[in-house]
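Have a close read of the entry that follows and walk me through the local backbone shapes. See right below:
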Amino acid sequence: MLKAVILDDEPKSIQSLVWELSNFSNEIEVSESFTEPSKALKYLKNNTPDCLFLDVQMPTIGGFQFLEQLDYTDFAIVITTAYDEYAIKALKHEAIDYLLKPIDSDDLKHTIEKVKKHNERFINADKFERILADFNTKFDKKRITVNTDGKLLFLDVDDIIYVESDGNYSTLHLQDQRKIVLTKKLKEVNTILPDHYFFRIHNSFIINLNKIKEFIKNEGYVVMDSNHKIPVARQRKSDFLEKL
């Protein structure tokens, strides 16, 4: 049974969607529903559903802003809204589907099928990635495994110069000038990189400590082997100096 969470500031919309889900499918159930984004954020920090039905327009935090505040999005995202102009933006935020209110029963059935397929693919790929990541952590601390473009890459940590955040994505900048884009936030990438090699020097950057060429103290940035200049966040400066 798939577990779903609903976030919508209108209680009637939640009631309607719960009714639709319970009456038209025996494969998905609503485990929690929220009208306040802050409570939903708190819940999702400790719980991972199979699917999140997310309203776009909410008075405190908009749906897309809400997604940007999540540490992880290891679940299917379905955008629900009364307005059709958000379709392209929904795709950019990796939503698997887009439902217009009032939600049509046939559309909802198609969405549930998409949620099922998404979770089947994710479970298989994620399980394999975690097994390899655990192996690298225990036996090969100089390699990491990343999942990108439908394939698993095995990277030597010495080949990574720095990692740059781009919202829900992160870009690995490699020694050979290649760039590898991951569908992971910087927080997630930070968990798979060995601490003794890497340091999160700024909200938007993680650097390989062995690839630092210069530290310009007065101007507050480091120069990497690739000649890229990476800013040092003030609140991280003392920790960075300790690492050095």
